[in-house]
Every structure is written in C-alpha cells, then in structure tokens.
Amino acid sequence: MRTVSSGILPKKFVIKANHESGRILIVNDRDAVNWKQAYEQTFRWLEQDYSEMWAEWQYRWIERQLLIEEFLEGEDGMSPRDYKFFCFRGRVEMVQIDFDRFLNHTRTFVGRNFEVLQFGLQYARYLGALVPPPNFSTMIGIAEALAGRASFIRVDLYDVGRPIFGELTLSPEAGLGKFDPPEYDAILGRLMP
C-alpha cells in the first residue's frame, strides 16, 4: 500500500476506485477525516470485482487502485452538474445531465443543441430550468475527440469555468437502467452500428 501524507492533500477532496462505479468518499475537511474508517471503507472497494458482479468485462484487467482527486465545486459550493456525453461512432448524440447526485439525484437528457429530450433513465427527471454551461460546445469537441470511432462510449465531463474530464464509460447503469418511456431502449439501440 502506498501512503500519502495528509499534509499534501487539499483541504477538500474525494477518494474513489478506478475499477468501479458510484462509490465515492467525499472528504470535506482533511484534518477531521477518520483515516482508519476511510481505509477500511476503501479497502472493501478494492476487493469488489465489477467484471463478475455486473458482467462488465472492461473491468476485468484493470489494476485496482484508489484515486484521490480535487473536490470540484459547483456555483453553490456543492458538487457540480455532471455532463455525460453519449457518443455513437465518435459523434455526440445526446447528453445526460445529473443534478444533486449525492442528495436528491435527478437527471435529464438534452440533444447536441441543448434541446430537452423527452425520456428519462433510472432516476426521476429534472424539472427545473436549463441553461447550457458556458463551455458546452468545447465539451462536445472534447467528448468526440476522446470517443474516437468507438461504436459507443460515454464521456463524462464537468464545467467549473473550464471543462474537466470525469471518466469514460462503456456500459452506463451496467446496461440495466430502465428507460422512461421504455421504447427509448430500442430508439437508442438503433444508434448502434
């Protein structure tokens, strides 16, 4: 195990594993964190095998590691909106926007031109006003560059005054998410080559 001195960490940061999804430890104050508890929690993450749990083959060969990242703050001091670009053959076709992921998780989908799409996936739909982030067109360019010619990949980005890379995902919701209405499963499937 590689150790990190808490003195070199920012005051606020997150810990997550590189081989799984959804688990994150938000540290609001490095000086007040219970390191023993954090170690035990994150060690359990490293024991999980997503390639077996959810049949996501892409996790099988990853050397499991913990990542410590700067905590990104939105305008309200909480986590920023999460923009997930659905790329088919290197082109962004739609964007999933997640709101309040750690409190009251809602989401919506928009098209390339930021028009609201009339379907949902897994979580309740966000019903508030929507304004494109300042770097939306730049983010589309970044997502398409990272996607390359893959038949499908989701590119996750944040906009905190500048675009920040989150992750690449091959199977959102482990392929088990429920669309509302359900026919959007087939509609999105037709975008696959």
Task: List descriptors.
193 residues; alpha+beta; three-stranded antiparallel sheet; 18% helix; globular
Largest sheet properties: 6 strands, antiparallel
Helix/sheet category? alpha+beta
Number of domains in the coordinates?
2
Q: Which residues form runs of ≥5 with pLDDT under 50? A: none
| Whole-number mean pLDDT | 88
Q: Tally the beta strands.
A: 11
Helix content: 10-25%
Q: What is the CA-CA span between the terminal residues? A: 43 Å
What are the secondary-structure elements, in order, as H or E? EEHHEEEEEEHEEEH
Q: Compute the CA-based radius of gyration.
A: 18 Å
Count every helix, treating DSSP H or I runs of 4 or more residues as helices: 4
Strand order of the largest sheet: 7-6-5-4-9-10
Strand content: 25-35%
Give the overall silhouette: globular
Description:
It is a single chain. The chain is an alpha+beta fold. The chain folds into two domains: 6-70, no CATH class; 82-189, no CATH class. The protein has four helices and eleven strands; from the N terminus they run E-E-H-H-E-E-E-E-E-E-H-E-E-E-H. It has helices at residues 35-47, 50-53, 136-147, 184-189; strands at 13-17, 25-27, 66-70, 82-88, 91-99, 106-110, 116-117, 120-121, 153-159, 163-169, 179-180. The strands form three sheets. The protein has a six-stranded antiparallel β-sheet with strand order 7-6-5-4-9-10, covered by helices on one side. The protein has a three-stranded antiparallel β-sheet with strand order 2-1-3, covered by helices on one side. Strands 8-11 form a two-stranded antiparallel ribbon. The radius of gyration is 18 Å and the shape is globular. The N and C termini lie far apart (43 Å). 16% of the residues are buried. The mean pLDDT is 88.
